[in-house]
Amino acid sequence: MNDSQCLIVYDLSENIAYQIIVAFKISFCFTAAFRLSTQWKDYGVRFLVHDNTKVLFRFYFALNIFHSLVFGVMYISELIRVRYEFFLIDFRFIILTRGIGASAIFAAHHVILVISFERLYSSIFPAHFERSSSKLLSGFLAIMAVITSCVAFSYSSPSR
Fold first, then answer.
1. May I ask which residue range the UniProt record assigns to the signal sequence (predicted)?
2. What is the CA angle 90-81-31, rounded to 5?
């Protein structure tokens, strides 16, 4: 980091508007996680008809709650770092929170794709789908979507 970049970052640390924006982001993340948790508790996935779709949709809910919490923690660390004159936080923590949060977003989208393909398959081949469907297979597909998203994100992010 050169002197001009240090000056810009120091100006951000003194800027109250930036700190208020980060505080709002923290409150939005934790409010979203709380709201998703209460919605999952109150309504669940009973509006869905098939058990496989229920399993996949539970993964979708869990991933959205998880990435809201991870980004909330990330913004808290950002606020602490900027507020207390650049309190040094280990770079692995920062990279881990940002990487896991982004991977959770991608994984949630991939789980929705798995739901779409599963519903498409059940529409085209309904008899075969009903004979061979299982909750265990749906859970395995959701876990594979999460792992694939994490691996794809780790390979697509710049290494330096």
1. none
2. 105
Distance CA(144)–CA(59), nearest Å, equals 11
- CA–CA distance, 4 with 80 (Å, rounded to integer): 22
Q: How far apart are CA 36 and CA 69, in angstroms?
A: 11
75-84 b/e with 16+ CB inside 10 Å = b?
bbbbbeebee
Q: What's the pTM value of the predicted model, to 2 decimals?
A: 0.80
Question: How does pLDDT run along the chain (160 residues), one tens digit per residue?
Answer: 567 777 777 777 778 888 899 999 999 999 999 999 999 888 877 777 778 888 888 889 999 999 999 999 999 988 888 777 666 777 788 788 888 888 888 888 888 888 888 888 888 888 877 777 777 877 888 888 888 877 777 766 665 4
